[in-house]
Write a structure and sequence with these properties.
Elements (H helix, E strand, L loop, with lengths): L114 E2 L9 E2 L32 E2 L23 E2 L21 E7 L7 H10 L7 H5 L2 E7 L7 H4 L4 E2 L10 E6 L11 E4 L2 E6 L2 E6 L5 E5 L6 E6 L5 E6 L6 E5 L4 E6 L7 E6 L6 E5 L5 E6 L4 E7 L5 E6 L6 E6 L2 E10 L2 E8 L13 E3 L5 E3 L6 E5 L2 E7 L11 E7 L2 E6 L3 E6 H5 L9 E3 L4 E4 L6 E9 L2 E8 L3 E5 L11 E5 L5 E6 L5 E6 L3 E6 L4 E7 L4 E6 L10 E6 L4 E7 L17 E8 L6 E6 L5 E6 L3 E6 L5 E7 L4 E6 L8 E6 L3 E6 L20 E4 L4 H33 L30 E8 L2 E6 L6 E6 L18 E4 L8 E6 L5 E6 L3 E6 L14 E4 L8 E6 L5 E6 L4 E6 L37 H44 L15 H41 L2 E3 L3 E3 L6 E3 L3 E2 L3 H43 L1 H7 L13 H33 L9 H13 L21 H51 ...
Parallel strand pairs: 28-32
Antiparallel strand pairs: 1-2, 3-4, 5-6, 7-61, 8-64, 9-10, 10-11, 11-12, 13-14, 14-15, 15-16, 17-18, 18-19, 19-20, 21-22, 22-23, 23-24, 25-26, 26-27, 27-28, 29-30, 30-31, 31-33, 34-35, 35-36, 36-37, 38-39, 39-40, 40-41, 42-43, 43-44, 44-45, 46-47, 47-48, 48-49, 50-51, 51-52, 52-53, 54-55, 55-56, ...
Length: 1908
């Protein structure tokens, strides 16, 4: 491209037009690169200020670029380009090759004076100046690089209309568009878009304001400048216009509104078609796109705002009425957002170059239109807190982030946000110059930075570090700049500085939410998180804000404060807040298809979540319309089937199942005349028949409530398929139902009261649609359309002719196949050939016409040589896709013929197909069938027709498109033709991206049209005008069948794995086969049993024969080899069985081990029953389980908790001790203040030589004496202070008495019951779940210990029995041996040996078998002595057993009571667990507030301590100041005439130079610091003097004034100033401490009030908890003598009014009465004695006061007599010399000595200088005398000369010039010497002082020579 415009003679210039340049083309996706972490974008208008914008001249609104101020020299206004560094926000050029080429300048020399612009990578591109001089008017170009804010320009040929403004700034604007942002508007010229869509009306001229604005920036509107440069050419502009520093800019009026009718999208109607524009009118929207982000907004407390397809719905919550706003482009709506004031709301649209439209509420007028913010769609938008700015972010492909000044419709900043999907953008609530964006796998932090090239957007990409990368949907910016975001796994991520600071989770590393965190809100100081798990949790903001990682995992465990479970199966997407009647109300968007109303106050009056509306979630799979009334049914994968009334616009009924619905069909009239049956198919292959009826028609049943207008009931369920049911169709006579599925089968059912299966056929592909032939066809045929391009036609199977016993498959059903073969490429080829032929014919026709014209003009036509043949482009190839295009819908046209609509490559046509007659010899897969006719459908190449339906009269064909549009084709004939398809009506209804229409049907009477789409939306329309609809139309719900209420509910198929009908038949067949096989096996077994019985009979007969006739057993064997073979086979089988059962054997062995471990190893004691030997008594042990490890751990934790509690108590005590110590320290400081003064007295110097040696000794003695006196006085004061400290105040009360009174007030007078309403639970008796658990553990431990002890005693008794039995055995053996030697007559019966019962040793059951038990031995006689011993052993054991049995019975009673108590405590534990969460919350709040109060009290005490310390420091400083003045007065002496002057010097306020605290400041501002130091060092004290009338110089000691005293005064002044500065600092510190103390005191009051409130709430909660505990039933076993509640001497039947009271408590109360009476008498006596003692003490005090008064009077009289006045004796005793004054005097003497020595030296020097001066003066005097003599001699000579020459030489008369100069030189020399003398005198004077300043002597004038 070359520059055509150059400066001409008139000084005008032209701007080259670049319409065809690549600069004007939008950037392709391939040209965009990934953006760096930090990006900047140039401003289109200076947002922060005008300083940077003035560097670049602003382009006007015409087709020219203004030059900058031409008066400036070359190069003065150059703008440096940005460097190529990463993230610096380069402004690339838009050259032809990625902005790297240069555009030559139109100035005199190419490339001179240009401002280089940063290219897309290296910043090479430049945009030259258009001015006539170099360096003027440079306009940096804006390239397409990521992060740059360009609006790509499009030429007029692309259908973009540009606004044009007048070129003259000082002339009125004519024919200008109202778009003051000068961004072009998109206007559709394609037939794809409906007419009128996208047109933005202009702003009227009267609605703009003209203001004169200085030329600011060439970047004011890049898109406007580019667009206007493309529209006009060769527009001239006067040079004067260039030099104007101002331009005319328009501002949009605040009261301007657009016209909605001009703005909104309208239906598209083919021209000259005669179709009315309002063919369809929207009535109602039943759906809700719940999966769309942020698709729920609030305008006020009763108006909800959400997007439904191409409409914005405003829903009135009270009336349930809907209002609609259509999109302006027809491309859909991407995002909605509401202004903070709720006065405006913004709609971000979708489509090519979409707009953002701002509407005013409640008028709903379009207020502003924002253009050029993105390429295709807006993804999110957000207003800032003040509502002045709007941030928007686009979707693919540009992802452009744009900041708008929306009221002026101007872009402020723009930048590419990211290279992937961006979900959200928000302004920071605290700093509106910061933004945050988040999206797919990223989060980004932005800020508006003011650079030297203007305002830019800088973005910093958040880095995940060790954390896994996650999509971020929800986040919130904290006030301190941190950002907290959610994650996909449910944890919270805290971002700081672009990095993850910490990842937050719950205790136990549980996620904060079980699913993604979709939204985070900072509300009233609390963080609210909204999760996909249905929970809303509230977290402590301060805890999260201060969170930090504690280990390498980066995780920090926290717990939420409150939570709300909205409901099961709830997926919360977002929530919004509004205040209604002062109460906050939240509305929630549920992604599972609901809108909820929530109360998040978390108080006692919090309402439960309320579900306001329910919808389908996700894509609506199918829809059906009632054939008899205005009802429709829908189903989706959300497992529900819903019925709607589209006359009353309400949802009637809903029924839910286990699986999602995929197909739906309303039974026709012939099947159910009432229209009350619906057939629904589901994804698990089940078909359900559902009844719809009016429940009000049923018989009234008791208890039936909430009867609605309609109900749904499952009538029948059957499963014909193994995969999802995709199509349902009733045969035209209603006798048959066909179901199709993706399992490639079509099943037929006979329609009766119960649907009976007929059979199924297999088809070549998944079924897409089913359609029975219409009644006009002779035969009833079923058209089956498959997804993979197959179409089938089968006749209806004949009922009851199918054999369903063997299989349900119908194999002999005649089937016709059609396999679609693509002909689209051939059609395109033919169209191209036809186009070329037509073109050739037109060229030939034009040639012949030219020849004829030439012949008519009489011109001869020469024979033209044959033109060389032009090589034509090849024709389009024939293309057939490898995978066939899917069939989406179709319908019958004639018998054997049908129309198809295909997707994919073959979309764009309707194909007319027919079934071939040749079907037998060709397999379906190998067929290649082509349609015999096609109808091209306009604008359907990439937008296929998804659904087709007809009205009842067949005059209208309704088409549902893939992009969500509805098309209506009017038909003149039932046969479709291309002419009929030319005219149509189209309107975008559903979402253009994902809202393809799933179903479209008209009502039974053709009055209404209903559509449903994949965007979850359902719309109803009136056909023609709404006025044609009669108001009396009413939907009638079918009445119920007779006896419906008595029928049992149909059995549903809930198991997804249930068998289908065919599989169930196959399973039944297999079961029958197996049953027959088992029967055959049983028959063979019976035969074997019979043979075995016969063989046994033979063996028996053989045994009955004589032995010689019996056959041996071996003889029965026919062949021994048979037995051997059988044994071998048996062994093999045994081995095989062992191998087969090895796994089972091991399994059972392990199971046995597990059982033993579970039931035996945990058993500490089994039940052991010990029987008595001589009686029937017995005693058993307790079956006792061992205490688990968890029990021990819990006990340890409880003990550790006690230790922690004691530790916390110790810490609190330590804090209190520290407070006491600090107070005591302050008191000690006050008491020892005087002692500190004595210790800190300055020690006088010892080495003063001969100055004041004796004086020092005198001073020392005086000081010692005064110190002794002061020490005595201080000791006395200390004793008095201690005495007064011990004095009680008038309000003093003994703490013990106070405590006793408090206890008496609380406990005396009544015995408070827990059931009383005013019962206050003591702190130690408050019970919670943890304490109750500890009680239960203690009770269990006590029960276990007692049972264990009893078991040990019983086991020891059993062991005793075993020992006794062994001893009895020994005795019996001894008896046997004795009786064997006796006669039989003397033998006595031997006592039986007792045996152990099996239950006495239960452990042997697992060790031995019962066969090992010993039998009783034979009874033998024994001697009486041994028998007696045995009997004694038996009696002793039995008595022990009876005693232990009695103890065990008592223990059993105790254990039963303990069990009852355990049950009660466990019930209390369950109840306490319900209260635990709320109680913990309240207790934590109380503890937190208590800790806060204690902490604040501690701080208050600390502040008081610090203030006391500072006051003490101030007192010390004040005493030092007093001492300084006393020292000064002592130094003055008496009658000092300079006293007034020196006092003024001492009290004078002077400015003192402070030292620099920071050295860096001196380095940064060195020059200013040097000047300030010079000024401060040269400041004169005369500026501020103590007297306004007299100004004195305190830098020079007056004459006759003692210089030592003057120096001493200056030093004292410095000390005074130091003290005053210290006082000021201390007072400031005290003031600050007091302010902090007061602020903290106020805060303490607030926190204390909160603490009291929290305590009250906790007390009320404890009372409520106690009431609930009181409601529990407690079993108290009592004996009759314990019941003392009698009525008329009898025990009443009702003991509910009785009180269970312990004897000890009752006795205590009875004794307490007597004790209180005695205490009362004692207290009276004690009071009488105390009163008498009080009177005596009062009398003694009066006497002592009188005595003290007399002594004081005597003391005063003595002082008057001695001193003449009353003096302070303590001060008199401590009176001594002023040590400071003495010290100063000694120092003064030392300094006088030193200064005398120095003065002597200076006097000697002065003497030497005076001698030199005298010598010089003498020398000069001699020279002057010599000069005088020379002059006299000269005069004499001149006189003589005059006399000799007479009158000659008159010119020499008078003085000569040389003499005059010599005289003047000598005079100057004398004056100079006099000045030097004066200087020397001044120097001598200054040297006599210490601080004298010596100035350099004045320099002699130039050219002055000093005579030697």
């Amino acid at each position: 491209m070359e520059a055509e415009g150059s400066p001409d003679a008139s000084g005008e210039k032209e701007v080259p037009q670049n319409e065809n340049s690549d600069e004007n083309k939008p950037l392709k996706d391939s040209d965009q690169e990934d953006q760096p972490d930090v990006e900047k974008s140039d401003t289109t208008k200076d947002f922060a200020g005008e300083e940077d914008a003035k560097k670049i001249p602003e382009t006007s609104g015409e087709e020219k670029v203004k030059s900058s101020v031409s008066e400036e020299p070359q190069g003065e206004r150059e703008v440096p380009s940005m460097g190529p560094e990463e993230g610096e926000g380069e402004v690339p050029s838009t050259g032809p090759e990625e902005g790297e080429g240069e555009v030559p300048s139109s100035g005199p020399e190419e490339g001179e004076g240009e401002v280089p612009s940063s290219g897309p990578e290296e910043g090479e591109g430049e945009v030259p100046s258009s001015g006539p001089e170099e360096g003027e008017g440079e306009v940096p170009s804006t390239g397409p690089e990521e992060g740059e804010g360009e609006v790509p320009s499009t030429g007029p040929e692309e259908g973009v209309e540009k606004p044009v403004e007048n070129a003259e700034a000082d002339k009125p604007v004519e024919n200008a568009e109202a778009d003051t942002s000068s961004v072009y508007e998109s206007k559709s010229s394609s037939s794809k878009e409906p007419a009128g869509e996208g047109e933005v009306p202009p702003i009227p001229e009267e609605q703009t304001e003209e203001i004169m604005k200085p030329v600011e920036s060439a970047e004011s509107d890049y898109s406007s400048t580019q667009g206007e440069e493309e529209q006009e050419e060769d527009i001239e502009k006067p040079l004067e216009a260039e030099k104007k520093p101002e331009k005319l800019e328009k501002k949009i009026s605040e009261t301007f509104f657009y016209n909605y009718e001009d703005l909104c999208s309208q239906p598209f109607v083919t021209s000259d078609s005669g179709i009315p524009i309002y063919l369809l009118s929207l009535i109602h929207s039943f759906g809700y796109d719940c999966t769309k982000r942020a698709n729920l907004q609030l305008l006020d407390s009763k108006t909800l705002l959400y997007v439904a397809g191409n409409q914005l719905v405003l829903l009135d919550l009270k009336t349930k009425q809907q209002s609609y706003l259509r999109s302006s482009s027809g491309g859909g709506i991407g995002v909605i957002t509401v202004h903070p004031s709720k006065q405006y709301f913004a709609i971000g649209e979708k489509g090519w170059k979409p707009n953002i439209i701002i509407y005013e509420y409640p008028s709903l007028k379009p207020y502003r239109i924002l253009r050029g913010g993105t390429e295709e769609a807006y993804a999110f938008a957000d207003f800032n807190n003040h509502g002045t700015l709007l941030a928007s972010v686009g979707s693919s492909p540009d992802y452009m982030l744009t900041i708008w000044d929306w009221k002026q419709e101007k872009i402020v900043l723009r930048s590419k946000a990211f290279s992937q999907d961006v979900y959200k953008v928000t302004f920071s609530p605290e700093n509106e110059e910061q933004l945050t964006t988040s999206g797919s796998g990223h989060i980004k932090f932005w800020k508006m930075a003011l650079t030297f090239t203007g305002l830019k957007l800088q973005g910093a990409l958040g880095r995940f570090g060790k954390t896994a990368v996650t999509d971020i949907v929800g986040y919130v910016e904290l006030p301190d700049g941190k950002v907290i975001s959610g994650s996909e796994w449910g944890n919270l991520l805290l971002w700081e500085g672009g990095l993850i600071k910490v990842e937050l989770c719950r205790t136990g590393h549980r996620p904060c939410h079980n699913g993604p965190v979709n939204q985070l809100i900072l509300d009233e100081g609390e963080l609210v998180t909204v999760g996909g798990d249905g929970y809303i949790r509230v977290w402590d903001f301060e805890t999260i804000d201060a969170a930090d990682s504690v280990d390498d995992t980066g995780l920090l465990e926290i717990e939420h404060m409150n939570e709300l479970l909205v409901g099961k199966n709830v997926n919360l997407s977002s929530i919004v807040k509004i205040h209604d009647l002062g109460l906050p109300i939240w509305y929630a968007q549920d992604a599972n298809g609901a809108i909820w109303k929530l109360d998040l106050r978390f108080s006692n009056v919090t309402h439960d979540p309320e579900c306001l509306f329910t919808f389908h979630s996700g894509k609506i799979e199918a829809m059906a319309v009632s054939p008899v009334t205005y009802l429709m049914a829908t189903t989706a994968l959300d497992h529900s089937v819903r019925v709607y009334d589209f006359i009353d616009n309400c949802h009637l009924a809903e029924i839910k199942f286990k699986q999602g619905g995929t197909a739906l069909m309303w039974a026709p009239r012939v099947v159910n005349p009432k229209g009350g049956l619906i057939a629904a198919g589901f994804e698990d292959g089940v078909v359900r028949i559902i009844e719809v009826y009016d429940p009000r028609g049923l018989a009234i049943v008791a208890g039936r409530t909430n009867v609605g207008n309609a109900e749904m009931r499952l009538k029948q369920a059957f499963k014909p398929h193994t995969a999802a049911v995709t199509a349902l169709a009733y045969e035209r006579n209603g006798e048959m139902l066909a179901t199709g599925s993706s399992d490639k089968t079509v099943f037929f059912f006979a329609v009766e009261d119960k649907y009976e299966p007929i059979g199924y056929i297999c088809v070549p592909g998944p079924v897409q649609a089913l359609q029975w032939s219409p009644p006009s066809h002779a035969d009833s045929m079923l058209l089956v359309l498959c997804e993979n391009g197959f179409a089938l036609q089968v006749p209806s199977p004949i009922l009851r002719e199918q054999d369903t016993e063997t299989t349900y498959e119908i194999k002999d059903l005649p089937t016709q196949y059609f396999h679609f073969c693509s002909i689209k490429s051939r059609i395109k080829r033919e169209e191209e050939i036809e186009r070329r032929e037509k073109k050739k014919q037109e060229e030939e026709k034009a040639r012949l016409a030219w020849i004829k014209k030439q012949q008519d003009m009489g011109m001869e036509i020469e024979e033209e040589p044959e033109a060389e043949p032009v090589e034509e482009e090849p024709l389009p190839p024939i293309y057939i896709p490898k995978e066939p295009s899917p069939i989406v819908c179709g319908f019958y046209s004639a018998p054997g013929k049908f129309w198809l609509s295909l997707g994919g490559y073959d979309s764009g046509y309707l194909y007319h197909c027919a079934f071939s007659q040749v079907q037998d010899h060709i397999s379906p897969e190998s067929r290649q069938d082509e349609p015999f006719d096609v109808i091209p459908m306009e604008n359907t190449e990439d937008n296929s027709i998804q659904r087709i339906s007809f009205c009842t009269s067949k005059l209208l064909m309704f088409c549902g498109m893939k992009d969500g549009a509805v098309r209506v084709y009017p038909l003149q004939d039932k046969d479709l033709s291309a002419d009929m398809m030319n005219g149509y009506w189209s309107f975008n209804i559903h979402d253009n991206d994902y809202g393809q229409i799933q179903a479209i049907y008209s009502s039974y009477d053709d009055r209404f049209l209903v559509t449903c789409g994949a965007d979850s939306n359902i719309f109803t329309f009136s056909i023609l005008s709404p006025e044609d609809i009669q108001r009396e139309l009413k939907a009638k719900v079918p009445s119920p069948r007779g006896g419906l209420e008595k029928e049992k509910a149909a059995e549903d198929i809930e198991d997804p794995g249930a068998f289908s009908i065919e599989n169930a038949r196959r399973k039944k067949e297999y079961d029958e086969i197996m049953k027959a096989a088992e029967a055959q096996k049983d028959k063979k077994r019976q035969e074997l049993i019979t043979l075995r019985h016969e063989f046994h009979c033979l063996l028996q007969k053989n045994m009955e024969l004589p032995k010689h006739m019996q056959l041996h057993r071996e003889e029965f064997e026919m062949d021994h080899r048979i037995c051997e073979e059988m044994d071998r086979q048996t062994a093999q089988r045994i081995q095989l069985v062992q191998k087969e059962l090895a796994w089972d054997q091991e399994k059972h062995r392990i199971a046995l081990q597990k059982l033993q471990k579970r039931f035996r190893d945990t058993l500490e004691f089994d039940t052991v029953v010990v029987h008595a030997i001589g009686s029937t008594h017995q005693i058993s042990t307790y079956r006792l389980l061992a205490i688990s490890e968890r029990f021990y751990r819990a006990r340890k934790q409880s003990q550790a908790g006690k230790r922690r509690t004691s530790k916390l108590g110790k810490e609190a005590d330590q804090r209190q001790d520290s407070l006491k110590d600090s107070r005591q320290a302050v008191e000690v400081t006050k008491e020892e203040r005087e002692a500190d003064k004595l210790k800190k007295r300055p020690q006088l110097q010892a080495g003063v030589g001969r100055f004041g040696g004796n004086r020092l000794e005198q001073v020392r003695k005086i000081i010692e004496k005064a110190d002794l006196a002061k020490a005595k006085i201080m000791q006395r004061r200390k004793e008095w202070d201690e005495l007064y400290k011990g004095k009680p105040s008038d309000n003093y009360e003994n703490p013990k008495d106070v405590q006793d009174i408090k206890e008496a007030q609380e406990n005396m007078g009544d015995f408070k019951l827990k059931t009383a309403t005013n019962y206050k639970i003591p702190e130690h008796m408050r019970m919670n779940a943890e304490k109750k658990k500890m009680q239960l553990r203690s009770l269990e431990a006590a029960i276990h210990e007692k049972k264990l002890n009893m078991n040990k005693w019983i086991i020891s008794l059993r062991d005793l029995k075993v020992a006794i039995i062994e001893e009895i055995n020994c005795l019996v053996q001894e008896l046997k041996s004795i009786q064997s030697a006796l006669n039989a007559s003397e033998q006595l019966p031997i006592p039986p040996i007792p045996q152990l019962h099996p239950e006495e040793t239960p452990e042997k059951k697992f060790q031995y078998d019962n066969n090992i038990l010993l039998k009783f031995q034979q009874e033998q006689e024994t001697k009486a002595k041994a028998a007696k011993q045995i009997n004694e052993l038996v009696v002793t054991f039995d008595s022990e057993l009876r005693l232990l049995r009695h103890q065990k019975l008592k223990l059993d009673t105790q254990m039963k009571c303990a069990d009852l108590r355990h049950i009660t405590w466990f019930e209390e534990l369950l109840l306490l667990k319900n209260f635990e969460k709320h109680e913990d919350t309240l207790q934590e709040r109380v503890n937190s507030l208590s800790n806060d109060v204690e902490e604040m009290q501690w701080k208050l005490e600390n502040y008081l301590t610090q203030m006391e310390a500072k006051k003490y420091e101030i007192i010390k400083l004040q005493e030092r100041e007093k001492a300084l003045y006393v020292t000064f007065q002592a130094s003055l002496g008496e009658n000092n005439k300079f006293a007034s002057f020196l006092t003024k010097v001492l009290k004078k306020r002077i400015k003192r130079v402070k030292k620099k605290e920071v050295e860096g400041e001196r380095d940064e501002e060195e020059d200013s610091d040097e000047e300030s130091e010079d000024e401060s060092s040269l400041e004169s004290d005369e500026e501020e003097s103590g007297s306004e009338d007299e100004v004195f110089d305190d830098s020079v000691c007056p004459k006759n004034c003692d210089e030592t005293l003057f120096e001493n005064t200056l030093q004292l002044r410095e000390k005074r100033l130091d003290i005053e500065e210290a006082l000021v600092e201390e007072k400031k510190v005290i003031d600050n401490l007091k302010k902090e103390y007061d602020a903290l005191a106020k805060k303490v009051k607030v926190v204390q009030a909160s603490f009291d409130t929290a305590e009250g709430e906790l007390e009320a909660f404890q009372r409520e908890k106690q009431q609930r505990l009181n409601e529990l039933h407690v079993v108290v076993p009592l004996k009759l003598h314990q019941v003392e509640y009698m009525v008329n001497g009898e025990l009443p039947n009702d003991l509910s009014q009785a009180l269970v009271f312990t004897n000890q408590s009752l006795e205590y109360l009875q004794q307490r009465i007597m004790v209180l009476q005695h205490e009362k008498l004692d207290q009276r006596q004690l009071y009488k004695q105390a009163r008498q003692q009080h009177k005596q003490l009062i009398r003694d005090r009066r006497e002592i006061e009188i005595r003290i008064q007399r002594l004081e009077e005597n003391c005063n009289q003595l002082m008057l007599m001695k001193f003449g006045r009353v003096v302070d004796l303590e001060a008199l005793q401590t009176l001594s010399i002023n040590t400071n004054l003495e010290e100063l005097k000694i120092k003064m003497m030392e300094k006088e000595y030193v200064q005398a020595q120095e003065l002597k030296k200076w006097e000697e020097r002065i003497f030497e200088l005076r001698q030199r001066l005298m010598m010089l003066m003498k020398e000069n005097t001699s020279k002057l005398q010599q000069l005088n003599s020379f002059c006299v001699e000269k005069q004499g000579l001149e006189t003589k000369l005059d006399a000799l020459q007479n009158n000659l030489g008159a010119e020499f008369q008078g003085p000569r010039k040389a003499e005059i100069q010599e005289r003047e030189r000598l005079i100057t020399l004398v004056q100079l010497q006099a000045q030097e003398a004066e200087v020397l005198k001044e120097e001598i004077t200054l040297l006599s002082r210490k601080d004298g300043r010596i100035f350099p002597p004045p320099q002699p004038p130039p050219n002055t020579k000093i005579l030697n």
